[in-house]
Structure formats: C-alpha cells, structure tokens
Design brief:
Order of helices and strands: HHHH
Distance between the termini: 81 Å
Number of strands: 0
Number of helices: 4
Strand content: under 5%
Oligomer: single chain
Radius of gyration: 33 Å
C-alpha cells in the first residue's frame, strides 16, 4: 500500500476522506482466530534412570529426618515416580522397622 502525504489544515479535509480513512484502517485490523505454536521441551539426550521403590522410600526416610511426617514424606517422595503414596509409605515403614534409629 503506497502512502501519500499532503499539507492541509484540519478544516479543509473533507469528511468523506476521514470516513474512508477510518474504514480503511478498520479493514486492515486483524480478524478471525489466532494460532500460537509452541514447541515442547527438547528431548533429553540421556534417558532418566527410573527411581526404584526402595529409592523412593529412602527419600521419604530422609524427609522424615528433616521434620516431615511419614505420610507427607511418602507423598512428596512419590511425586514424579510411578509409585503411589501408599506404596512408598509401606516401603518406608518396612525400612523403619528394618533399621530402627
């Protein structure tokens, strides 16, 4: 679209030009739907070692040493693992019975 410029006073601009200008700018407004394309996280070059149930229970044991209750520790240790809170809790109890402090 080519632009032209002319020097005029505001009073000398015809009303029809002002209306055409507003129609033209309204016609150039973006309309419709927008699509935002985002990329996912890059693939890791090293496969993550999956935590075993024993390791999750050991993590829960560490958390109990930091002041967490057994249930809260099991819940926190189970996050990000394929194990449920109750599985980690049972394994935690087994460790605590096996190795009393």
């Amino acid at each position: 679209m080519a632009e032209t410029a002319s020097a005029r006073t505001v009073g000398s601009v015809p009303a029809s030009t002002e209306n055409a200008s507003s129609r033209l700018s309204a016609a150039n407004e973006p309309r419709g739907e927008y699509v935002l394309v985002m990329a996912g996280a890059p693939a890791s070059t090293e496969p993550e070692a999956e935590m075993t149930l024993e390791q999750a229970a050991q993590r829960a044991l560490e958390l109990t040493g930091q002041g967490f209750g057994p249930t809260a520790a099991a819940k926190a240790a189970a996050q990000g693992t394929p194990y449920s809170k109750s599985e980690v809790y049972k394994a935690l109890l087994t460790i605590q019975q096996r190795d009393p402090e």
